[in-house]
Amino acid sequence: MPQKRKYSLKSFLDILAVKSGLSTGVIARKVKCAQSTALRYLRELKGLGDVIEQRISNTINLWRVTGKGILLVDLDSTISNLVLMKISTYHKAKGDNVRLLKIKLRRRKDGTLKEGIKIDLSDKPDKVYISVIYKKNKPAVDEFISKYPDLDTDVGGSGYDLHKELPPEIEAMTPDYTLYPDNDYSINFSSRGCPRSCFFCVVPRRRANLDERNNLQSGIIQNLKQLYS
Q: Per the confidence metrics, is the pTM higher than 0.70?
C-alpha cells in the first residue's frame, strides 16, 4: 500500500508560482517541513517536468516553475488592482511564474517626476503588464517602453487607454488575491458604465451606457471562497 503524503505537490508549486528562484531551505520554511522533505518533493516535481533546478553550489540549489516569467507592475493603484489579479490567475493556470511589483513614483512639489520607472529586469521576464490608473503617469510608462523596446510590454488602465478591455478569457477569471496578502476584502462590479456626463469623470467616456452585472452573486461567492480557503 503506497505511503500517504503528508504534503501536497501543489503546495510547493503554489509557493514557486508567487515567487520563483527560491532555495530549498526557503521553500521548506514556507511549507513548514524539513529541508530534506522539501528536496524530495521538489525532485519529484522536477521529474514531472513542473519545475527546474538550478545548482548554485554543492549546498544551494534554486527552483523555479517551468512556465513563462510574468511581471505585473502596479504603478499607481490605491487599492488591490482587480485587472492585475485576473491576469495573475490566467497565467498561473497556464503554469507561468507571476511576480507583482508595486511602484510609487516620486514627484517634486510642482508635480513633475523626480525619476522614471525603475524595474529590476535581471530575471528577464517573458512579458510585462503595466497598469496605469492616472493619466499624469502615462509619460513615465512611454519613457520606460522606449527604453526597453525589445521587452514584451502590455499597458492598460484608464490613465493610458480608456477603451482597452481585457480579453474575455481573462475577464472571466477569479481574481488572485495572493498578490496582495494584506487585502482582506473581495472586489467585484455590480455594474459598469454610467449614463451621466460629469465633467470630472472618465467613466462616461469609457462606457456611456449602464451595464448591470447579472453574475454578481456568483462572482462574490467565488471571491470569498478564494479569500478564506
A: no
